[in-house]
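Q: I'm building a small set of examples for a reading group on sequence design. Run inverse folding on the following structure and report the sequence directly after it, with nothing in between.
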């Protein structure tokens, strides 16, 4: 039996979630898929019973379990976690592992380790310096703590960008200083103008252990390359966690420097983007052009 979370039935042309209540098909008529995009690209349509096309978001009880593990000071037992999300321990273990790609115990361990290393709590005690500059994609806000970049946001106005920054870090203190962040902003602007390389800058991100794994894998995808959500899930060692990977990409707070724009649907096209699908298309075109130019410059005459 495949570990893939979706399967298609060749005799009906329908794809389902694993565990669908519909009558089980013969094995010879089944094809397995890591994500719904792959199933649709192969010509299958969504089952009207289990509705796999409506499962892009993780079960809310699993989201709640992740929050509990992210904030727990001590290890929560499986029984205690299951009680608090109103599931049986065995069912929680299966749902959690299928959605996240690791057991609740392993996730909790990573979350505790990450919390020891990084400050949390809405930016409490943090002093954040930020700058806003114009670019080919619109206004770009870059915010940083003494440890590194904590936010890169793209928008239409300074006011909107500043408001979103304060909403994310309600307990922090702020100082605008375009001069102090000039090195970071100039490298980003040059990159977007096709006048410099992709900037690799130090980061200070607040995230769950799983999100950090995804974001670190994103940083390993070079300019000019793209991957699918299923491929990214496999890259972090959680092949069944494509939906959770997609959610981690959507929650990325650092545009460009954590390049979630390099993840595209298996069915084709650029796909959605937190900062607008048109901006994503522009970024992919820019990086594809740069990769081609580099390749040509290395070719023999």
């Amino acid at each position: 039996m495949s570990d893939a979370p979706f399967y298609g039935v060749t005799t009906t042309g329908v794809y389902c979630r694993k565990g669908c209540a519909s009558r089980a098909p013969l094995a010879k008529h089944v094809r397995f898929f890591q994500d719904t995009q792959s199933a649709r690209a192969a010509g299958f349509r969504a089952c009207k019973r289990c509705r796999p096309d409506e499962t892009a978001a993780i079960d809310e009880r699993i989201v709640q379990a992740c929050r509990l593990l992210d904030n727990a000071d001590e290890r929560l037992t499986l029984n205690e976690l299951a009680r608090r999300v109103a599931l049986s321990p065995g069912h929680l273990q299966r749902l959690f592992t299928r959605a996240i790609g690791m057991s609740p115990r392993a996730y909790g361990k990573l979350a505790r380790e990450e919390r020891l290393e990084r400050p949390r709590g809405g930016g409490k005690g943090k002093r954040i310096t930020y700058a806003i500059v114009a670019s080919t994609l619109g206004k770009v806000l870059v915010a940083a703590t003494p440890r590194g970049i904590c936010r890169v946001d793209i928008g239409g106005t300074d006011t909107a960008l500043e408001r979103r920054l304060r909403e994310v870090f309600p307990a922090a203190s702020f100082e605008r200083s375009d001069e102090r962040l000039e090195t970071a902003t100039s490298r980003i602007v040059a990159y977007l103008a096709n006048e410099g390389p992709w900037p690799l800058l130090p980061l200070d991100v607040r995230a769950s252990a799983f999100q950090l794994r995804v974001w670190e894998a994103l940083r390993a995808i070079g300019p000019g390359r793209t991957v699918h959500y299923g491929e990214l899930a496999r890259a972090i060692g959680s092949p069944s966690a494509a939906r959770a990977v997609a959610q981690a990409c959507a929650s990325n707070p650092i545009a460009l420097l954590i390049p979630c724009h390099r993840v595209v649907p298996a069915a084709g096209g650029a796909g959605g983007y937190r900062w607008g699908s048109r901006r994503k298309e522009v970024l992919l075109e820019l990086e594809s052009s740069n990769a081609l130019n580099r390749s040509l410059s290395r070719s023999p005459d």
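The chain has four domains: 6-54, 60-117, 127-192, 209-292.
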